[in-house]
Amino acid sequence: MINWTDQNRGKSWVTKLFWVGVVITLAIFLLNFTLIGFGVYGDGIGYYTPLRSLIFDGNLQINDEYEYLSHSVSNFGGGARVDKAIPQYSKYTLGLGLMLSPFFVLGHFATLIANALGAEIDPNGLTWSYELFYCLGSITLGIVGLIFCYKAARLFFSQTASVLAVAGIWFASPLSFYLTLEVSMSHAVSQFLISIFLYVCISTVWVKQRPQQILLGLVLGLAAFVRPQNILFAIVPIIMIVWNIINGVIKANKIGINNPWTKIIKLPDITSLAVIGLVACLMQLPQIFIYQWQYSNFLKIPYLEEGSAEGYESSFNWIQPQISNVLFSGHRGLFFWHPVLFLSIIGLILAYRKSPMLVTSFLLVFGLQVYLVASWWCWWQGSSFGGRMFTNCSLIFVWGLAAFWDNLSCKRSRLLGVGVTLFLMGWNTLLILQYESGMIPSEDAVTIRQVLHNQLFAIPYFINHIFNR
């Protein structure tokens, strides 16, 4: 194992690189926001409008918000912001709006101050100033989540390996797109919450501390409130408890203790999981009541019925999941679009001897995420830049990637790590240019031949696309 920590430089160079990443992220977002004229669009409207309706109208009916937004078009090409039928209620959860409500309120105060200084911005919760602060809140939480990813990696791996890992996930994974261009969606905030949850799991003795258990339940509950798929991360603390119990039984058998289960399975272990699960489940009740009120049956929400509406037998096919397609196909395959994540999985496997319990829990929860997405009727994740539904696994990817770089034993390991990371960041940037300029379709499959060919011409094509809008 290579120890790349530079004690003389300390943390100063890491801090400088971090702020470079922040500046790049904000610059891309602000440029995109300025060119388009707004920051909330696509699925982001479905998350944003219930918050605005709740604060300004005191209800969750969003048809008037959608009607207002339908009259705005992009400054960059003139595309309509709303190109679908106007719904009465949102099929999306209210969790993202609640998480970003403080930033929305800041946007309101900023609007009032700007108007007092002579600006003319309608303080109605739907103008650009509200969207700006709302989106900046999403970016802020997403970046804070990456800090927790770095802290988690540093618990086990060297400083340089951890920095390379964070840089790779920040700018070479699907998270990069949803931290800069599609920030009104739930992925950055989802990553933030799950990163905190996993960090607390691996950095504290939560089994013996009730406040930590309640914290884990609250964070997991919020994460599931933002994206229901996040509830699967509950398997991580479960694996930790079960792993310790099994290890205790094995040791007891080796020294000849009969029937060791009753002595090793302790009530505090069970109650700690019960506390986490109870708190997380209680936090889902508001959304369940909302769906019950909106659709008369929370099992009738559009997410659970849209598969049938699209001609499929159901929204989920648990028997024939499209696992190979989700991971490897040109139709938004996770490793096909983002090869840096394949290195992360290799790194997890390499780190098994060092942290078998942690690696097992990480691989298992990642596998559950893959199975869930692969069972969904829209397993390619709709209009998506790569595997967007896996951004919640960012801490796992950072941890695995740090393990990969820290396990290199060849000469010039640091130079190789920097070179590969920069290459993959460049690959991802060109892929974003392809996606944004229409060189590749927003939903349909592409081939590796198409991608490789387009990568050579992505920049000139994108420049031509800009000047001909």
Looking at this protein, list some descriptive labels:
469 residues; globular
Quick gist of this model?
With 469 residues, this protein is mainly alpha-helical. The protein is built from 21 helices and no strands.
Structure description:
By secondary structure, the protein is mainly alpha-helical. It has one domain (12-298, 321-467). Helices cover 66% and strands 0% of the residues. The protein has 21 helices and no strands. It starts with 11 loop residues before the first helix and ends with a helix. Mean pLDDT is 90; it is low at 1-8.
Number of contiguous helices: 21
Number of domains: 1
Gyration radius (Cα, Å) is 23 Å
Q: Roughly how many Å apart are the termini?
A: 51 Å
β-strand percent reads under 5%
Unreliable parts: 1-8
* Structural class by SSE content: mainly alpha
Query: What share of residues is helical?
Result: 55-70%
Q: Name the average pLDDT.
A: 90
Shape, please? globular
Provide the succession of SSEs: HHHHHHHHHHHHHHHHHHHHH
Largest sheet: none
